Amino acid sequence: MSEIATSEAAHPAHLQHHFDSLQEQSQVASLGMWVFLVTEILFFGGMFTSYLVYRSTYPDAFAIASKHTVILIGAVNTAVLITSSLTMALAVFASSEGNRKSTVNFLTATWVLGFTFLVLKGIEYTIDFHEHLVPGAGFQMAGTNPGHAELFFSLYFIMTGIHALHMIIGLSVLLVILYMARRGDFSPEYHSPVEVMGLYWHFVDIIWIFLFPLLYLIDRHR
Amino acid sequence: MSTAVLPRENYLNTDYGLRSWFLTTDHKRICILYLLTITLFFAIGGAFATVMRLDLATPAADLVSDETYNKMFTMHGIIMVFFFLVPSIPATLGNFLIPMMVGAKDVAFPKLNLASWYIFTAGGCFTLWALISGGVDSGWTFYTPFSTLSSNTNVTLAALGIFIAGFSSILTGLNFMVTIHRMRAPGLTWFRMPLFLWSMYAASLIFVLGTPVIAITLLLVAAERVLHLGIFDPARGGDPVLFQHLFWFYSHPAVYIMVVPGMGVVSEIVAAFSRKRIFGYTFVAFSSLAIAILGFLVWGHHLFVAGISVYSALVFSLLSYFVAIPSAIKVFNWTATLYKGSISFATPMLYAFGFIWMFTIGGLTGLFLAALGIDIHVTDTYFVIAHFHYIMVGGAIMAYLGGLHYWWPKMTGRLYPEGWGKLGFITVFLGFNLTFFPQFILGYMGMPRRYHAYPPEFQTLNVLSSAGASILAIGYLIPLVYLLWSLKYGPIAGPNPWGAKGLEWTTSSPPPKHNFETTPIVTEPAYNYSELEETAVV
Amino acid sequence: MAIEHTETTEHVVPKRVYYTIFVILMVMTYTTVQVAYFDLGRFNAVAALLIAFFKASLVVLFFMHVKYAPKLIKLFVLGGLFWLAIMLGITMTDYMTRTPQEFPMSRVNTVQPLPAAHVPTALLG
Hints:
B: mainly alpha, C: 125 residues
């Protein structure tokens, strides 16, 4: 994203000196983002492993604890993120067509939806706090082993917290991309920052697609 | 050679001033930045080892208190593993050589490369801060629940330092992978690549796939200390052994981050100084990848006595043996390369021989440790310490020094003094073996690691080990002094002082800013020393 | 150079594909919430994860263009998942085969609350 070199004499604008063509540069950028997303899979993987171990060890406590999550906010937030993925995909599409106005509009929509997600998540955290679901001295839960329920909420807060951190990073970078789009940096030949941003954004969406059932849905019927 | 002059313009003199160094995106200059930084960390880590070996010269703890000793071995481990060994060959030689070996002007993401160095340095500063403001005593392994519930030292700071430095590893690995995939010169197919590139690719895989796991694991430890979450807290039903699973998922493959690049260096050196193509090139290339992949399947052998199930231990034990196969393939192929080669015993070659020997000893004792019964006997004894120091110090550092000598003329344009080089190698080799061989015996006799005092009957071997450590310290100082000396007084090397094959030797020494005048075109396989072989037959 | 399209990472996907995928994703989200309230026994978890996996695949293949991407990128995606499977799978070989003696917190004891100062024998061994 920060890979925008000042153009040299014989080169097209945005082409860095060690590449032969914009196309090569763009392929390299998206390959780099994919490698980064692979590391992200493993980064979240550490938490998924912890979750799997404890969920399989304490199924009853986890079932009871998970019913304390606010499913309405969780479900709405899933819809919000999926919609933001759609607008992001459309922004990439618009930028590849060189449609500046449309790119800016879709990027703005993506940003607003992402921000909405965080606001809703903040409201949910507040509710959790008032219901004494934050692990530590103030944690309370009846009807099951409170220690095991606290494990569930430790995982809930760390997983959603790290996810929210990814959202915040995404929103910050999105602002830069939005600025570049407004300035008219992108064209059918050069729009790889939007594309790479899109990959990251969809990935964060995918993580939530898994967090939602894992933390809110499984054994909800009990 | 005496009439040779340094090329008028090269990467070292195109720009001057601190700004041109601290804002450089030239992979060669970033190599130099890393070289200086990790040398500093090596000195700090070495100082902690010195204190430990001095303390262990006598059975009663005369020098430092038990608490100080705990901090000494912890900080020695943290600094040496995360801030010296892991970045050693990749961040210095890898940075310098990967673009040159693929025939490119730079790595795929030059700015990211510079950012990696800053991130690394920031992580290092965090860790040094943890050290200055009171130290850490959890062991470099940060085992829970001690690290989360009991230790009242700077565990959080140190963990965050490693977390930050981890991003440097990830971004470096990412950069290297993309560079090797996408930046290769015309004609440089995968099977024409020097083996150093294969080994760096394998190490990058581990960087990319393993490092995020240690990052999240240490973040969970920090969260448990600061936010009182309870992921590993036994009082809430958490399992401390889960921490060990996650920790070793990275930290076992990390051993291969240290040693696989070393294997790449040795492959280059052995080919160059026996004037032969590496025997079984394809096998050596794939064995790097095999080690990287198998390395991810064996972490449980660190947990044999930690409380994992017997069945799981059985599986891990079996899988651990498989790592021996690609490792042995490499050793046999290097040896076979020497056969009927025209061998010269220059300093880099001596280090390569040192690597092959020490790595073989370290690897074979690793097989003892993979065996369940023996492991239970020697877990947490000096046998383990000796084993992994044979891999990491005898293996990785020998290869690092060998590589540094081999490419020093390329990096600086000047040759090191050969006589001093040999003396340095002999001192390192003797000092190393004297330090660590007695520790095999001590461990087998049952001396546990991480204690500052021991029964008197262990003293003789401990004194030998401490004496060896002093020799080893001198051995490391010798190259430091003469390499610095050579910067000004060393003979001018010329583009290819060893008569070696490889793209990096086709350009001037030190190379120009963009490495090559024109993009090279590769028409022959790596190590094409065949014309020399033909004359040797006659 | 830029005119050559030998191995382009970019493939223009018609807009309606994005809208179709979006509708499927929303429908699946509604479905997964509804399914969560039916008692399917252990298949509740299976259903929730299958739906999540299906949704994630759609995002990866169409929104992230992996369906049209070079083989190398497909390989990386599968590699990442494979390594995740290694971590989950091999860790579980331990937890699935532990006996209560080895892991006092194992599923056998889940109903009984632990004593306050409980230390697992794993730590003492």
